[in-house]
Task: structure prediction
Amino acid sequence: MQFNKQKSPKAAEDKKQEKNDTQYQLDHSLDANIKLFENIFNDNDTVVLRLFENRHDEKVKYCIIFIEGMVDNKIINDDIIKPVVQNTAAASISDILENLKNQVVYSSNIEKTQDVSELTAAVISGDTVLLAEGSAVGLIICTKGWKNRSIEEPQGERVISGPREGFIEALTVNLSMIRRRVETPELKMKLMTLGVRTHTKICVCYIEGIVNRKILDEVFKRLKDINIDGILDSGYIKELIMDSPLSIFKTVGDTERPDTVAAKLLEGRIAVLADGSPVVLTIPYLFMENFQSNEDYYINFYIASFNRILRILSFIVSFSVPAIYTALVTFHQETIPTTLLLSISTARQGVPFPTIVEIILLLLSFEMLREAGLRMPNFVGQALSIVGALVLGTASVEAKLVSAPIVIIVSITAISSLMIPVMESAISILRLLLLLLSAFIGLYGYIFGVMGLLIHLYELRSFGVPYMMTLIKFEPSELKDTAIRIPWWYIRRRPHLITSNRIRQSGGGKSS
Amino acid sequence: MRRKLPFLILLAVFMATITGCWNYREINQFSIVAGAAVDRGENGKYVFTFEIIDLHEGGRDAKINSKLVKSEGDTLFDAIRNALKFIAPRLYFGHMDIVIISEDVAREGIADLLNFLSRDQEPRPTIDLLVSREKTAMEILNSQGILTNIRSFEISEMLEAQRNALKAPEVKAYQFINNLPCQGVAPFLPAVYSDENAGVKTSEISGMAIFDEDRLAGFIDEEETKYFHFIIDKVKGGLLILKSIPGDDKLNATLEIFSSKTKVKPVYSEGKVSIELKIKTRVVFDEQGSEADYTSEQGQEIIEKAMGNLLKENIEKLIKKVQKEYGLDIFGFGRTVQSEKTDLWKEIGHGWRDSFRDLKVNVDTEIEIVDTGLLSAPIKVGS
Result:
């Protein structure tokens, strides 16, 4: 089954709205210009139009336009109003704004334009626009200043050892965190704006010389194809640019950790950041990355390899165990060892539901508990775990609503699926599908399900790179960083297909 | 593709649901049979007795017990289906471990039982078959276990443990069936008695039954069964006891078998086949009744020699007995000839039964004491 990507070709519809601004023209009269902006920001009470005059020449009038809360008031007071008001050369200069721009206003980022839509956009994004009497142009002065969340360790990707920084919602801060880790001019950051109404800034990062040009072009192509009114989180972009978006597996990675992003960039991958989202996308994303954690590279490679094998194992366990249990208990009783059969059979005495109903009931209640626990404040979470453990676990078994083995099966499933939070949603769906297949036709169904799963996985592509790349052919150098993580001094090459510049360490990494 | 997708999904859903759940059965919808006993009723019908596992409802401290169900029928399957006259859940044979056959039934022939066991998909081919030496086979099933509640499972485990005692052979149904069409070997089964042990009415496995094709021909006792194991090279453990040697009649030495290897070699000379048996056994000197010291090399040699001779004597006696009384090649000498001298077998194979009766078997034994246990000299009493 192939899940084809579909995109809405309707593009030009929203463009009309934007074009409205171009009918406005700046005038030489300040009053007219003020009228113009009052008209644009009609009913927009947070927009401030502040009029002031030069101290030495009251005929030289100015107006600054900004949005309360989006700007740093200290900059406006000290670096714009103060020098402009005190400016002595005001009257004698013909092009007053050029003078202000070059000699008066203290700002690192200042721009002169007569494009009204540009001025409007600047005001909305938190900059200040300075207009002067007699000029049909405006100055855009960077005064952005709002409160950001402080940099914290991401809750979803904690590590025991390793950097504790996590991305925040501000794009510029996030970019700086990446830049600080990869201090090379080869690290390129291309900005673009997406979202017809939200005008969200997007940044594509890659390392020139390592990145695969074809993949990069494909990323830009898909980003440019996006036509949506708003991008509130990088998740929007992820879904819009992902290959096979109908698949339960994600083919675009996401992380909140700058160190992870830096590592992926060094492997030749591409990062996509969106303003307002602490989640950074990495492209391409392969199946094996689901089992890799940034910590694997910081701790001893034996432990890292062991942990990875454990994660792969728990992936298999968590989607297989309920299905296999159901198949064995309802179809293939011969395959269960006699003593186990007896204990399962004893436990099932007096239980009213068929095995499949029991399992689905408990699995669903686990999923509900999990979902409920996610959104609950911590103190309610405790009550939830008591209800989960006592009511579901103990009481339901004692009340003979479910049999004890089922509780164990569901617990194993839950624990193992929590081990790989990255794949949890995929696993939940997969688990249910395989369970139903097994419930209908036993192990036969399970085998079919797994075959289907493998076919699907091998069919997937992430930006042209096979999703199961490392598992397609046996190449020792490709396997060094998959199920196991071999010591750094042996990882001399980058994975092929992702990049053509594969030499990671020239010569032997280790002096030997 | 987009048109096809809904159809594919529908197809998958219908395939799974409309076909139903073939062979679906909940684990508690059947009664698990642990073992069965086959008897012949007075009216000539088959009497099947099943030991079924009794699963109590009852949480954590539920005990697993067994109960017996008896049913009659014209054929074996008929008897099985007739059990539904007495109990509700269908009998399930997937975990049946033993089938005990009464002497009467065994003498008549067990071909139909074997037929049923291998045709039906539930019973495993690895079921242990036994012959009851009591009046009925049901008595054996009715005996109590000393340690466990399910006698059938225990008997099966006891048979497996015989590799360290050699009192009875373990024969799986498939092994018996495989031996049936073979000219060069006669099938055999372990024998089981009912017995009393420390006040418990239990059962005991001892010796073996010899079959002429599918019909019981006779029994040999447990001592002979031990030597039988040496001939068929199935000795994994067990004991050899040397009661006395010339000059030390209180010896009573016990040798624990460490390993044993038997080589069977058919020799063809002057138009006659004879068999050469070479038995090499490594033992540990474990116990002795006298105070004489046999730990020296010479001492060990004396024991080795005496034991070797005794073993040889007993084996020859057993072979003679089987040749004379039954004329059935339970040792599989014929099969050895067949596999090692194929051309010869083509000539003599069809007349093997007759030639077995006066087949010459040369036995050569070699005992090697590898260890005298933790003692380097026997314990002295008095003086």
